[in-house]
Amino acid sequence: MRTLRLLRRRRALLNCAPISQDHLTDRSMRAAVPREDGSDEFLNQQNFDRALAEVVRLVPIPPESAEWFSEKDAIRAPRWTWRKIVLNPAVLAISIALLVIAGVFAFHLVGQLNDFPGSATARKLLTVAGSTRSVMLDPVSAEAGTLSDLFFMKHGLEHYDVPDEFADFQTIGCRVFDDDESQRIAQIWVGEKRMQFFLFPAERDSKTGAVLTFPGWRYVHQEGWVGAVTEHNGVCFMAVLRGREKDLEPYLSGPKQ
Question: What does the DSSP assignment read for the chain?
Answer without folding.
Answer: -HHHHHHHHHHHHHHT--SSGGG--SHHHHHHHHHHTT-HHHHHHHHHHHHHHHHHHHSPPPHHHHGGG-GGG---PPPPPHHHHHH-HHHHHHHHHHHHHHHHHHHHHHHHHT--TTHHHHHHHHHHHHH--GGGSEE--SBGGGHHHHHHHHH--TT-PPPGGGTTPBEEEEEEEE-TT--EEEEEEESGGG-EEEEEEPPB-TTT--B----SBEEEEETTEEEEEEEETTEEEEEEEES-HHHHGGG--S-B-
